[in-house]
């Protein structure tokens, strides 16, 4: 059975109440439930995780090696700053998809730069919570 790690970075635990005009009113738990249902319908295994800490995200990526077939990563603000997360993805040599709820390219200039893009097979952004199920489908397509 194909297994996908869906990893969420800082402040995404506050979804639902955090800037709903930007990120919508869906909570991270709602998104997890959406992903679990979408994955179960296709007999895909998923692990859904969140951390506010860069090192914990690096650890989660390392632990994915040999366990998961791909990583969907919404690294939050670390997207724009973290060479450590970029290196972690390169180090485990698993396919990664960069994900954002918002269209980062329509926002502030500093959100246009991504270290994660450099090591990702593709990027999904701007589709809100729906982006997560789109990313699962994109990962399955990539792995097939
Ligand atoms: C985000 C976009 C990032 O720029 C921001 O720092 C986030 C959320 C998104 O999902 O739209 O925390 O990754």
Helix tally? 5
Number of strands: 5
Q: Give the ordered list of helices and strands.
A: EHHEHEHEEH
Bound ligands, each once: 1,3,4-trihydroxy-5-OXO-cyclohexanecarboxylic acid
Residue stretches low in confidence (pLDDT < 50, at least 5 long) are: none
Walk across the major sheet and give the strand order: 2-1-3-4-5
* Main sheet overview: 5 strands, parallel
Category by helix and strand content: alpha/beta
Helix-residue proportion: 25-40%
Rounded to an integer, what's the Rg over CA atoms?
A: 14 Å
| Silhouette | globular
How much of the sequence lies in strands comes to: 15-25%
User: Averaging pLDDT over every residue, what do you get?
Assistant: 97
Q: Termini distance?
A: 12 Å
Written account of the structure:
With 144 residues, the protein is of the alpha/beta class. The chain is 37% helix and 18% strand. α4 (83-92) links the parallel β3 (70-74) and β4. It is globular, with a radius of gyration of 14 Å. It starts with a strand and ends with a helix. 35% of the residues are buried. The structure holds 1,3,4-trihydroxy-5-OXO-cyclohexanecarboxylic acid (DQA). 1,3,4-trihydroxy-5-OXO-cyclohexanecarboxylic acid (DQA) binds at residues 11, 74, 76-77, 79, 100-102, 104, 111.
